[in-house]
């Protein structure tokens, strides 16, 4: 549960410490019996929500498997068009950001307000970097070549008539994932804003940090599956 | 206890609001009280039931006679073609359709889409479940009250998308949105996309409600209430919520892919581009079959309450009923293939057929336990109990007629005929709607603090029962004789049965109008309801009718099971005589 081992005990400046949003002043929801019940319930809810995220992407993975089986050549051709360097760089970026997200939770638990913010900033920067690489170095170039989904597909050198399916699934999968990256970064940005302004998170009140970090981990995890399936295996 | 944070006036019911119409409206629109949200859901789903019902009546009206075109002579002596039997032809211009058949296609699609996505999926869990799940657990609210309100708004937005699509002319894809039809139909792009997005948005509402209920059941049970002290309605809603959480995301991604298919032809479901329409059907039924149990499981939960309370007997086989709910939820994920037997290999079809038969086991366990509960019970034939008995009758027919559909050989003959239509209406309407009506009458006094006229409600139930069976039993005959579903036209031989079915739908309408009248009169002029009109032992009967804002004056402590009538209630006790002995749990 919540621990205060090695906690930073520096008192917050008075105007922050007395603010109702400061972590020491936050009440728990009135319909729960204890703060722990509230915390456990919210975390349990988050895990259920993460389950739905996995099942959402399951549709993409399932379609990937079906068409890979039906058109192995198109799939092989398609993955040769992806540069593993960009995919690999984004993988490393997301792994680092997952570590900083986890560290942010730990810092909140230990009331290390400064490092909480630093970790959040690094995580959000990693998200922006990921999106930058994805859109600037990958989508932009590929769309320019005509490697686009559905009706927009105009790549003249496709060797298999079914390559358009590969690109459709590539954009659906990575696009949906990128949307999740943006949502996750926004959640972490909200956490950052509130810890910057109010020191809203600390040893007894770090649920939002934890749940946003959990969301961030699922975003990372989905990429961990997308990366080898799209970039590495042919 | 931390309940005193929120100032509230003791003894004031949950719907006593501030004076002034605008502040009242705002109080309801911004409420996080699960009871108000439950009531708002109730009115919203009943409105959708009305819209879906009107389109059903239109479908039945069109089918009164077959469409026939004859060459005849007009007054001027010229040969003209005269078409009879297109009763919905008058709507052709209004809906912007090409011809009367397209009007028919659109209307049965609207009937299906509204009834499935907007009425029956949220019906019991979101209205009665929202209102009673926390109270029956002894909690002050659901785990996430603000998410609960959000889910209502998402539901309303989803419904608005659907209604917009209808106002723009509606869609003719069938409620299943099968490809390639849904991607190539003549209907305007935007209408199809709006309707698909409506279903997509409604999915979020369903997921949020499901998550909320699962967490509430885990974390907010009153002190002393173990898992097996929960009322069986909670078990039903809990199993439902698990399916909602696990199945709905799959329809989410499916509909999203479908929207992109329609907008930019991504090709995944389009055979001309190498895509696979059967993949769509697998995806669709992977959600939509479990959802059949989202529809029926809460209804089964209600029946467990009704039968135990109104026969004043301890429920027979409590654990068997509880576990069979979870069993149905588990099996529900393994049977989607029976919708598409002919689209898969022989081995897969045989496996899906076998797995489908498995559903019959937990379902039969429930039915036998309910009947065993009735045995030697002191059965009160009031409206809730009558609906429970109707449920046993109609749902059993619905369940048993499902077996020939699970059997490969007979399904080949019956697939896509009126037999299927009759079967799932016996399960969905004869099951879920009957349970919903029973539950609504059972809990109406608690929700609104008013009694209803028992005789009028009983009359309504009898009329609904008669109308329902006339409407749908005739369709079993139509189906076995070969009448395909979704057709606006048919050969003359089928007309008698179609006419019977349509007359039945009018009787059904009459029954529901009687219920509507009963409810309106009850709200306006009903007698004040006592706290416990039926002598129930679950926690909602401990608090007042209607409940106070935070449900209970003191947090209840559970000291007896939900069905311990033999231990708690004196023998020969009549609810009318005197109130139940002071419940030890209410301090």
List the helices and strands and how they pair.
The complex is a heterodimer of chains A (234) and B (587).
Chain A: H1 14-17, H2 35-70, H3 72-80, H4 84-109, H5 113-145, H6 163-198, H7 207-232
Chain B: H1 21-29, H2 34-62, E1 68-73, E2 79-84, H3 92-95, H4 100-137, H5 145-167, H6 181-184, H7 189-219, H8 232-264, H9 277-311, H10 318-332, H11 346-374, H12 383-400, H13 403-406, H14 408-414, H15 418-448, H16 454-480, H17 495-525, H18 565-568
Antiparallel strand pairs in B: 1-2
- Low-pLDDT regions of chain A: none
CATH homology group of chain A: Cytochrome c oxidase, subunit III, four-helix bundle
Total domains of chain A: 1
**What structural class is derived from the secondary structure elements of chain B?**
mainly alpha
Radius of gyration of chain A: 21 Å
CATH superfamily of chain B: Cytochrome c oxidase-like, subunit I domain
In the predicted model, the low-confidence regions of chain B spanning at least 5 consecutive residues are 1-10, 583-587
Write the element-wise H/E pattern of chain B from the N-terminal end onward. Answer: HHEEHHHHHHHHHHHHHHHH
Question: Averaging pLDDT over every residue of chain B, what do you get?
Answer: 92
What is the subunit arrangement here? heterodimer
Number of strands of chain B: 2
Shape of chain B: globular
- Biggest sheet layout of chain B: 2 strands, antiparallel
- Second rung of CATH, namely the architecture of chain B: Up-down Bundle
Distance between the termini of chain B: 15 Å
Number of domains of chain B: 1
CATH topology of chain B: Cytochrome C Oxidase, Chain A
